[in-house]
Structures are given as C-alpha cells and as structure tokens.
C-alpha cells in the first residue's frame, strides 16, 4: 500500500508542460495594451506561455508566478557619493526598445503571481485598481515609467509584499499613505519622484510599518514635519536605510529621524535645507555608517563638526558634506576615522595645502571645487593602499604631477583637472595603474612624454587632457584603448594627420573631441557608440564631407577646409542627428532637399561657406528645429515657409542675396537676423506679436514703409523683468559624466554693436537690440519706441526718416548704443537725452538737428564727429558756440542761463544760511561767543609759543656748530 501510494503521489505531482489557459489569455490581452517595443514579446506565441520571454510558472501547477520584463540601458553616471565605489558603476536609462503602452487589468487574472517587474519601460496610464487582488505578490516593481494618476488604495491588500518600487514615475501621485501600515511584511519601499506633497501625516504612516528596512522618498515634495506631532509617532525600530534627499526639508525633520537612531545605518538628507542645528544630533546616531548631507545649509567651520562625530570614530564609512556654505578653513584631520572608506568635501571652501593622515581603508576621496593650493602632495602608498577614487579637480594646486600617484595601484578614477600643474607626464606616472578607467588631466600645463611604442597597462573608459600637450604627433598609445567611451584631446598641440587605425579605436566611443588642433588630411571612417558626439572643429581637415556613422547625434566640423557639395548628407541615416555644424568651411553648391528626413534636428549651422541656390522647402518639415544659421553664403530666392512651432528661437539668414518679403514668424522666436539681403516690402505687424523677440536685425535691405507703431508690444524689449534666454542647448549623450561638460552647445551670431561687427555666443541671450539701418524707411520715429525700456541698442541709421526725435527718448534708460545718423531728422535734441546714463555710443550725424546740445555727462563726452552734418547744433563738445554764449550756456530768449532768477535766489539763500548760521548764533548766545573768541586766543598763544621754542632750538644748534 505504501509503494502504491508513493507511485500515485509521484505521478500526480509530475511537472505539467503547459500554463493555465485562462492565464495565457490574460497575458495575450496584456500584450494588446503595448503599442511599441513589442519585438521584446516576439516569443509570446504558441500554447505554452511558460516558455515565453519574461514568464515563469510553477512546475507542478502551471500557474504563472513571475512576470519579469525590466528594460535596462547602461550608462555611466556621477550623481553623488554613491558613484565613488570600488569599480566604475552603471546606472540605467530609457531603452529605445522598451515596452510602451498601458497595463491592462487583465494582469489581475494572474492570481498566483509572486514577482512582477516592469521597471525601466515606457508604460503610461494608471496602475490598475485591481492590482490589490494579487494577494501572493512578494515583489512589485513598476519604477522608471511614465505612469500617472493615483496609486491605488488596494495596495493595502498585498499583505505578503516585501518589495514595492514605484519610484521615478514623475506623473504618479499618492494622496495618502494609510494603506502602508497594512503591508506588515514590507521590507523595501521606493517612492522617489512620486508626488507626495498632498500627504499630510506621512511620518505617522511610515512609523507604523513594522518590518520596513529600506525607505527611499527622494524628491517627493514632502511637507514639513509638525514638531508637536512627532512625540505621537511610533517609529519602526527596524529601519536601516533612510533616504529623503531633494525635498527642501528643514531641521524640523531631525527629531523624527532620531526615532530611528538605534537601527539606521544609512542616512541621506542631501539637497534639503538642513542647517547647523543638526550638529547636536550626531551623538544620537549610534549605528550610522553612511551619512549624506550634501547641498544643505551647513555653515560655520568644518572642523567644528568632527568632535561631535566622535561616536563614529570606528564605524563611519561614508561621509558626504559637499556643496555646503562652510566658512573657509584648513583641511580637517580625518585620520582618527579609522573605518572611513568614502569622503566627499567637494565645494566646501577648504583652503591651504593638502596634508594627509593615515587612512588605510579610504577608497574614495573628492576634494574638488575648493581652494587647495601649493604643490600636489606626495602620496604615501601605505597610507592610501585602498584608494580607488581621487578627485582634486578645480583647485589651485601647482607644481609637477607626483610620481607616487602612479603607485596607487587600485585607482580606477583620477582627476586633477583645472589646476596649475606643469611638467612632464611620463610612463613612470602611469605604469602601475593597471585598473585605471577614468583619467582627467585637462586644463593644466602638463606635457606628455610617452614612448611611441609604449603599451599602457590599463583600458581607459574616459581620457581627458584638453589644454595639455600631447603633440606634435598623434598619440600612438591610444591604439590600445579599445573600450573608450569618452576621448577629449582638444587643444593639445597635435600637428599631424588622423591615423587610419583611429577609426577602429573603440566601437563604444560616445564622445570624441579633437578640436582646436592642427589636424590635416581626410577623416577616416570611425566606429562609434549610440547617440555619440563628434567634434573635429578648428582644424585643417580637408577633402569632401566624409561618411558618418548613423549613430552620431552631434557633429561639429566647423572651421576646417572641407570643400565640395553637401549633398552627401542625405546618405546619412538621420535617425539620431540633433546638432549639425558645418560652418566656416569651403562648401559650395545648392542644398539638397532632404531635410524633412532629419526628424530630430535641433541646431543647423551652415554659415560662412559658399553655398548657393534656393533654401529648400523641406526646411519647413524640421519639426524639432530650434536654431538655423545660413548666414554669409550666396543663397538666393525667397525665404520658404519655416516650421510652424514655438521651438524655433533663432533664425540667421544674414549676408546672402535673398529676396521677397519677411516671412510669417512664430511666437517663440528670440533672434531674427536677415541683415544684408535684398528683402523688400514693409515690416509686418505680425512681428509685434512675438513677445520673446530680443534681437531684430533687418539692416541693409530694401525695406520700405514706416516703422510699426506696435513695436512696444514686444515684451522682451519693453519689460525689463522679462526673462532672458541664455541660448544653452543641452546635448543628450549616452554617457553623462559630471566633471566634464560635454553636453552644452552655445548659439552664436554676429551683431553690429556700437558701430562694429562682433560675435556673440554665451551672452547672446542677454542682448536686446533693434537694427533697421540701411533701408528705405520713411515717416517719423514713432513715439511708442520710447516704451522699449529693456532695449540696449537701437540703430535706425541710413534711412529716410523725418520729423523730430521723440521727446521721451530718455525713458529708454537701458540704452547703451544709439545710432540715428544719415536721416532727415530735424528740431532740437530732447532734454531727456540727459537721462540716458548708460549711453556709451551715439551717432546723430548727417541730419538736420538744430539748437543746443543738452547738458549731460554722456553727451559732452562724445567726440564732435557724433554730431557732424547737423549745421544747426551748437554747444560742447562742438567748437561752435550757441548765439550769445560767452561764459555759459544761452537760454532760449537770449538771457544768460547761469544768471536767471533761480541763480539770484540761490545766492541770497546761501548768504543768509552761511552768514547768519554762524554770526547770528555768536550774537545771540553769550557763552558761545566767549568760547569762540577764547578759541582764537588759545590758537594765537599756541602759535607764539611754538615759534619761540622753534627759534631757540635753531639758535642753540648754530651756537654748538660755531
């Protein structure tokens, strides 16, 4: 009977081969909710859903127990001190192949599901309310999606849940946390970047969750804690990791945090508003091993904090105090923190030399962005045997690079960028750094002296050496670096051609900058990583435009000598191209009509070439374009219709031979430059509707008509408080790394400023100007133009304007440059000119102005040429005096301006106040009169005695000599 029973049990419990049919149908319905990225689900066919990708089943029942389809795309990050690890860390970001769509409620039919992970996808919509019916769930991970709505209250039913991760769903919100205490088995909770500002008593709900070990509520908009309610909160005694960064919490949070002090090991309060009162709380954090307090309001002396942390002398492993406004002070002595592994004092106002104590377990040290000076210290290997990460960048260290750095054999990160180091970098500095991954020596005066046949012992991921000397030959040791992600060797004195082997240097290269050298010849075909940036600008590269990898997103080839047609650009795969800069080359011929294929193109710069023909109509299909530079070419014909969206902020078609009228423009425009063409017609009033317009340059065209009265409607020119655009474009990179700024593009254009042509880049967004010079404008200068109070440059010269200069021109108090020359203006210069205190350039020459020049510090400081050609003007700085002017200015009726009634009144008042203020008191006040004359008697006596004594001294000296 026992044998028969065993056989029955074994046969009855044998594994099934197929999943439950109703669960299979539920999965197929769920698949229908995904509208892209479904190639991931290509295996979702056939009868047995247990074999589908991401699905796991119970071997005996066939029920689906795991749904595991997270999408990860690795890139290197540098957010905070968590980056300072033993090896280079990786983070995750959006994967173009991720699942996109909705989570249908059919998922709730998987009643036996214990593990659900859809992290790092592109899911939208709300979390199904029925999710609470999955009572066997142990882990629920829906982080890094685009889920919205409110987190369902039914989460309270998931009593078996141990791990809940809903973080980084930016549109998701939680209205209350009353469901949280019901999750009695919950160990891990991450609601980072989920909107929690509506939750009033969030500390109470968290404190009632008994088994919670790790809590992450970063950047949730948490409300401040009411100090009176803290005493009623029962804190979880098991909480070990508490992370509340980026919530603008103040020090009122500290008493609540101290409720967890007996168990908490990791505490992250960075990027809040914690002040110095926290120093009194350190003694209570008994078990603390990691403390993150960066980007708060800690002040005072850094040395004052260390004695309060004596409790952690043998326990503290990580300390992050970066970006706090400490008072300047010397580098503290951390040598008595015997367990310290990671230390960041970045941007904490440390000054002076850099002494080091004995820190045998220290793995990561970040002292960047301080005021450390003197020579780079000699590292004693025995004191830093475990050092993996060293950042001393952005200080004032000088001298040579110490050879002892090369003996820190465990280093994978080394940055001494932006200091004052000089001398030689030889093989001895690098020979023992076999684990080196990131090397940043940029912005120093270091000179590399490496053997041409040298084989490095390391495989770098990042190499940055801009402004050092690598040349004159192209560094041959780079041939062995097959894993490079970032290569920054701009301005390194290389005078050579790019070797052919460079094209195979690394298939994952995502940032390449060899600009500002003297590289010549042609570009080889170069492998590259996804969404990469290439910068070959400011060299001597020649030949036709080379073929480019389809994965390039940003391409800078400006200031070379490339020649020929640009039609080859159409052969590129345009899927990722965002920035294209081919300016200042020798390119010729017409533009191809394929621009509609560049779906994500943001900045196009073809300026300063010899391109010709018509501007293609396909420019109107650039759906994401923000900036177009076609200036200084030979384009002809009319300006085509441009994209009809508010993203277009800069148009520079200046210095071509374009005809037609000014095109229809859109509300987001900031710079419009059509200078030096043959554009006709009038200035359309539609320009006045562009509130953001800061620079309007229509000079040197054939524009007719009057200046529009509505220019005062342009808010960027009339409202001083209107926000200015700084014209920085952030370049998306597959690799983002904090110490190097590889993601910035700055728009540039040429403007006539104070009579001279100047290039404007970083400060272009701070300019506000109107230049309508060199046209055929008629009529008067409209009075409304004086309402442009934010305008700093106005040029209306070389037109046919008549009438008077507006009386209220002095209301434009921000004006620094004014040019009204070469018109037919008459009348007097308005007295309000005296209010233009910032005016540093003015030209009113060759008009019909008359009368006296108003008195002003600025107006009299200009040269006489400013007013030349106005025969009726008189007074300084002109040599011709106004009629009747002898000692002063002449008034309108011929009376002396200095001797009018006001002058005599002032004279009388001055005499009365001066004479009777002194003499009257002496007459009326007897004691003052006696004191006054007694004072002069004393002075007289003192002078007499002094003269007599001095005379006797002189006589005695002569008697002694005789």
TrEMBL record:
InterPro entries, per the entry: Leu-rich_rpt, Leu-rich_rpt_typical-subtyp, LRR_dom_sf, LRR_N_plant-typ, RLP23-like
UniProt-annotated location(s): Cell membrane
GO cellular component: plasma membrane
UniProt record similarity statement: Belongs to the RLP family.
Annotated Gene3D superfamilies: Ribonuclease Inhibitor (3.80.10.10)
Keywords (A to Z) from UniProt: Cell membrane, Glycoprotein, Leucine-rich repeat, Membrane, Receptor, Repeat, Signal, Transmembrane, Transmembrane helix
Highest taxon listed in the record's lineage: Eukaryota
Residues that span the membrane, as ranges: 901-924
Lipid bilayer topology: Single-pass type I membrane protein
A Pfam family per the record: LRR_1
Organism expressing this protein natively: Flemingia macrophylla
Domain Leucine-rich repeat-containing N-terminal plant-type, first and last residues per copy: 23-58
Protein name: Leucine-rich repeat-containing N-terminal plant-type domain-containing protein
